[in-house]
Amino acid sequence: MPGLRSNYDYEDLLACGRGEMFGPSEPKLPLPPMLMFDRITEITEGGGKYGRGLVRTELDIKPDLWFFRCHFQNDAVMPGCLGLDGLWQMVGFYLVWLGRDRHVRARALGLGDLKFTGQILPHVRRVAYTVDIKRVMRSKLVMAIADGTVCADGEVIYRASDLRLGLFKHLPDSPIKPAG
């Protein structure tokens, strides 16, 4: 495994999605267009609000992003579920980044509470995500529990508590093969 770093750029994230960062059998980030951030600006094992880990990422918003064209006709807005998925992507990356166990799949397992107080519209310049790791469990299931926020141009617009994501050693392959 490569040495742990405290930040990653877009090319690094793409390498992770292709299985080139942590290894081809390790869980991967989704590739575009489902990758919900452009860079990891900070990742640490001991930081954050709970002292158990912190991940910060950013997404540059451009008015021509794919979801603005298809979410609502004549009402361009980023779907809230994509911001939530970005938070889960961060928790999954964190668990793989820790690199203590070999697993093949990452899956979102739920959350406690979610509040939306704003929206991501085409005029927004930057979305900043923060995940504060509350707990990491390692047994048959490796799982993390975290709280997360999504900010649009510095204003908190989503708050999620108790995001749960697990890593699994054995899950069946999808019968659907990716395009390409």
From TrEMBL:
<keyword id="KW-0275">Fatty acid biosynthesis</keyword>
<keyword id="KW-0443">Lipid metabolism</keyword>
<comment type="subunit">
    <text>Homodimer.</text>
</comment>
<dbReference type="GO" id="GO:0005737">
    <property type="term" value="C:cytoplasm"/>
</dbReference>
<dbReference type="Pfam" id="PF07977">
    <property type="entry name" value="FabA"/>
</dbReference>
<dbReference type="GO" id="GO:0019171">
    <property type="term" value="F:(3R)-hydroxyacyl-[acyl-carrier-protein] dehydratase activity"/>
</dbReference>
<keyword id="KW-0963">Cytoplasm</keyword>
<dbReference type="InterPro" id="IPR029069">
    <property type="entry name" value="HotDog_dom_sf"/>
</dbReference>
<comment type="similarity">
    <text>Belongs to the thioester dehydratase family. FabA subfamily.</text>
</comment>
<dbReference type="GO" id="GO:0016853">
    <property type="term" value="F:isomerase activity"/>
</dbReference>
<dbReference type="GO" id="GO:0006633">
    <property type="term" value="P:fatty acid biosynthetic process"/>
</dbReference>
<comment type="pathway">
    <text>Lipid metabolism; fatty acid biosynthesis.</text>
</comment>
<keyword id="KW-0444">Lipid biosynthesis</keyword>
<dbReference type="InterPro" id="IPR010083">
    <property type="entry name" value="FabA"/>
</dbReference>
<keyword id="KW-0276">Fatty acid metabolism</keyword>
<keyword id="KW-0413">Isomerase</keyword>
<protein>
    <recommendedName>
        <fullName>3-hydroxyacyl-[acyl-carrier-protein] dehydratase FabA</fullName>
        <ecNumber>4.2.1.59</ecNumber>
    </recommendedName>
</protein>
<dbReference type="InterPro" id="IPR013114">
    <property type="entry name" value="FabA_FabZ"/>
</dbReference>
<keyword id="KW-0456">Lyase</keyword>
